[in-house]
Fold this sequence. Notes:
- The chain is of the alpha/beta class.
- The protein has three domains: 2-120, Methylthiotransferase, N-terminal domain (Rossmann fold), CATH 3.40.50; 136-374, pyruvate-formate lyase- activating enzyme (Alpha-Beta Horseshoe); 380-444, CATH 2.40.50.140.
- 34% of the residues lie in helices and 21% in strands.
- The chain is built from twelve helices and 19 strands.
- It has helices at 7-22, 46-61, 74-86, 102-111, 163-167, 175-187, 212-223, 242-250, 267-273, 279-292, 311-324, 351-374, and strands spanning 2-3, 36-41, 68-73, 92-95, 118-120, 136-138, 145-149, 151-152, 171-172, 192-196, 229-232, 254-259, 297-304, 328-333, 380-389, 392-396, 408-410, 427-435, 440-444.
- A seven-stranded mixed beta sheet has the order 6-7-10-11-12-13-14, with helices on both faces. Strands 1-2-3-4-5 form a five-stranded parallel beta sheet, with helices on both faces. A five-stranded mixed beta barrel has the order 15-16-17-19-18.
- α2 (46-61) links the parallel β2 (36-41) and β3 (68-73).
- The protein is globular, with a radius of gyration of 22 Å.
- The two termini are 42 Å apart.
Amino acid sequence: MISLGCAKNTVDSDSMAQLLVQDGYQPVRSAQRASILVVNTCGFIGTAREESYSELQRLAEAKRPGQLLIAAGCLTQRYGREVAQRVPGVDGILGTRRWMDIVGVVRELRNGQHPEPLYHLPETPTLMEENSPASVVRANRFGASAYLKIADGCRRTCAFCAIPLIKGSAVSRPPELILEDAQRLHESGVRELILIAQDTTDYGHDLGMKDGLATLLERMTTAMPELDWLRILYAFPGYVTDRLIDVMASHPQILPYLDIPLQHAHPDTLTRMRRPANMDWVHATIGKMRLAMPKLAIRTVFIVGYPGETEKEFQALLDFMEEMRFDHAGAFQFSFEPGTASEALGDSVPTEVKEERFQRLMELQQAISLQINQTYVGQTLDVLVEGFNNGIAMGRSYRDAPEIDGLVLIEPDGSKKPDQLPAIGSLVPVIITGAMAYDLSGILVR
């Protein structure tokens, strides 16, 4: 099972694996040993699509007689026929809206009574998960943290984004099922639950809930008072409500961390993106959040080189970053996506201009991140230990989400024996002694 793209894809991959295990299969690490090869593809932007094609072609070229190669996920949902044409060795095409049919697809392929390849792309307006396994996946093989999907799909109309075309409109999982999954994970020893969806702040809208995410968080903290960390990813600008801020601030389990992709800072660019363009709201809301949660860490992401982006608009983005000083910020160069609302705008910004602006933005953020990290030297942070490398323990603080943010390197201080180093999965206090652009280093509190 190879999962490409975002954590939401990894959740679907793990759920497909669970279904196959329930049907009698066992996971293996080697493609050569496998009887079924599944690539859960990403089709979000051009580079992600090419990575998916490359991985499928690699497996197809080395495929043994009797092996099945199934292409699943976002790329196949949108470009199923093209996938089959570009990768002749693919046996099955499974879209992201019906990933839970993986066992049926495998059985049909084994029976041999099907066209080649087998397309399983039923027309359905949304992603449905009835009778599916718990939508969870461990963030690492030690089980210290786990993603918990609370919804899938998106009803936003961002001009650059193909997700609604791929996933369909937003479908929220019932809160009772989410709470059951959360309890099961907590009881299995998970210390950090990470809530994910295309837009977590839209949770419950389709269920008739108002402030659904805030309500869900309150129920989770009440049901699991011993849970250490609860993290929120992928909030949407304009939908971080006062109640959500209050709930986050009043429950210590909910980490003062928020991933809120802003995409740009110039109102004209945001308008062309069909994104919320009220920058007064952004300033006011981030101000309220920082007032309510003084230790708040914010991650965001921006698009550079969007059609029509002028140097003046880009400079406004840099000025905004200087002013707001985000803990973490990533960036994408605009990727032309046929079929999206931005298609009519073309791809007017030259590639070299996109690259130059990307480099300027990332250099600025690197300097900001370093300055912020330096303020933590001398402070004590709780660190969730996730591994070791050359005698140094590695983990994350509340400021860092898995895979996308930094690490805290826990260096030996000379006073502890090897068997006294922190155990993987433990949550330990660390005095920060050093700061880099993205990572921190420190020693265990004696």
